[in-house]
Design goal:
The complex is a heterodimer.
Chain A lengths: L1 E4 L9 E7 L6 E2 L4 E7 L2 E6 L4 E6 L6 E3 L3 E7 L54 E2 L1 H10 L13 E2 L1 H8 L6 H16 L2 E9 L1 H12 L9 H15 L5 E4 L2 E4 L5 E3 L1 E3 L3 E3 L2 E2 L7 H17 L1 E3 H5 L3 E5 L18 E5 L3 E7 L2 E15 L5 H15 L6
Chain B lengths: L2 H15 L14 H5 L3 H15 L14 H12 L1
Helix pairs in contact in B: 1-3, 1-4
Classes of the chains: A alpha+beta, B mainly alpha.
């Protein structure tokens, strides 16, 4: 029997609310099935199960908010013996934490229950590491709902009351803005970024897209982002140190090119869910995945893996932006590629000044994992692939 | 199909893509993408939905004729009307 836990869906998630139980008690589950929907700061996330078996019981009710790592349900793996019969009383499952009913008395200052210390068979939850903090700092953090793992420890590795006090001073922001703030603040605090910029000639890409789309119905048309994604995946073949996760002081290279695509959610913020296996998909499959993802992002509905498993991010300003951008790496990733808005520019080609459509291609990467020299080669490789769009 | 019917379909599809934008408050003569803050993938989604709903072909080469809400409605009315 194993516990199905509230997953960590990115560096910025502390807790989630179970909003749908999609499998009843006693129902069969298969690896990859979506069995629950969890509401987070980024929207409703569909949660997959990672084993075959039977759902023995839900431990958390619909509508309950629980910390990352809390068991949501118990799952008996296929082949495991039956649960004990009624005459042999089964051990009570741990009672789900129910918020106390509202009372007219003084407001409760009880902290949220810390996540139970359960080793996860599926994936590590680095967020569960408890930082060293003074007792006073811990108390204040619990009272103010501050996650100590978000705070930068002092040189001696501890967090003190004043650090928590400083962090508590900020006024509350809307949920998604808070999530972005937490992830980006952690990135700027922990990741030694370096930045590179390159003038990219996108004339061939835009010509290819226009030609290809001319005689195709709208549902089969491409946008340049699909080509950018494919070119990145190709370049990552040769420069794998730009895709992966930096966790616990070491870099873990990616198992595939799962490229996060930054999607602007008008007025609400930004998300960068992953397009999976871009290295193993053709251009039409990548385009279909982009469309599907953007539509679901607009509706605020993602799958869990999409938010946790991206190994590098692409942020493209599209047609209405500015020349270029320098991205902030989304932890625990180690690189982010930016593409600015293409514009006609005078260029020197074979000694002649000619008009070409140019865009600024940038890279922000983690100096703990790579150096600017390799970063430059990586950007050049993206450029080279984009000059032969028909081969993507 | 009447112009009114076409406009109803256009409004419904725009609402699907940008549900947070009040269509009555946009400037129909201003660039559609600015008014609705939509990107190229949204435009493609819109064109896909409109060509299906109105059973017309909308080639990419015609995009310059659909800069504003009013232009787009004129374009659709001329093709599907």
């Amino acid at each position: 029997m194993s516990a199905f836990l509230m997953p960590s869906l990115g560096a910025d998630m502390e807790a989630g609310t179970l909003i749908e139980q999609l499998v009843p008690t006693g129902g069969e589950v298969h690896r990859g099935d979506i069995i629950a929907v969890v509401e987070t700061q980024k929207g409703a996330i569909e949660i997959e199960v990672f084993q075959d078996g039977r759902l023995e019981g839900w431990l958390v009710g619909v509508g309950q908010k629980v910390p990352v790592g809390t068991p949501l349900a118990m799952i008996r793996a296929a082949g495991e013996p039956e649960a004990p019969q009624p005459q042999d009383p089964a051990p009570e499952p741990p009672a789900p934490e129910v918020p106390p009913p509202a009372e007219p008395g003084p407001p409760s200052t009880e902290p949220e229950v810390p996540p139970p210390d359960i080793p996860s068979p599926e994936q590590p939850y680095p967020e569960l590491r408890r930082p060293r903090a003074s007792p006073a700092a811990r108390r204040l953090a619990a009272r103010r709902g501050i996650d100590l793992s978000r705070l930068a420890p002092r040189r001696d590795g501890t967090i003190r009351l004043a650090d928590v006090d400083a962090a508590a001073g900020a006024p509350p922001a809307p949920d998604m803005r808070q999530a972005i703030a937490a992830a980006m603040a952690r990135s700027k605090r922990e990741i030694p970024h370096y930045y590179l910029s390159h003038q990219l000639d996108v004339t061939a890409v835009l010509d290819f897209v226009a030609q290809r789309n001319a005689d195709r119905p709208p549902e089969a048309r491409l946008v340049p982002a699909a080509l950018y994604l494919r070119a990145m995946a190709r370049a990552l073949d040769k420069y794998p140190e730009f895709a992966g996760h930096y966790i616990g002081g070491r870099f873990r290279p990616a198992g595939g090119a799962h490229i996060g695509l930054a999607i602007n959610l008008r007025g609400r913020g930004l998300v960068a869910p992953a397009i999976f296996d871009v290295d193993r998909s053709d251009i039409d499959a990548v385009m279909a995945a982009v469309r599907d993802l953007v539509q679901r992002a607009r509706a605020g509905r993602f799958r869990a893996r999409e938010l946790s498993d991206a190994t590098i991010t692409l942020t493209s300003l599209g047609e209405r932006g500015v020349d270029g951008l320098f991205g902030i790496i989304y932890p625990p990733q180690v690189a982010i590629v930016g593409i600015g808005t293409p514009a006609p520019r005078p260029c020197v080609v074979a000694g002649q000044v000619v008009a070409r459509t140019m865009a600024t291609l940038t890279l922000a990467a983690d100096h703990r994992v790579s150096d600017g020299h390799r970063g430059a080669l990586f950007l050049r490789a993206i450029d080279t692939h984009l000059q032969q769009p028909e081969a993507l | 199909m009447t112009r009114d019917q076409i406009e109803q379909i256009l409004r419904a599809e725009l609402n699907r893509i940008a549900p947070d934008i009040a269509i009555d408050r946009i400037d129909p003569a201003a660039p559609l993408r600015e008014e609705f803050d939509i990107d190229s993938i949204d435009v493609l989604t819109l064109v896909t939905a409109l060509s299906k709903a109105l059973k017309i072909d909308i080639p990419e080469a015609d995009y310059p004729q659909m800069e504003s809400y009013a232009d787009l409605l004129d374009y659709l009315a001329a093709r599907a009307g």
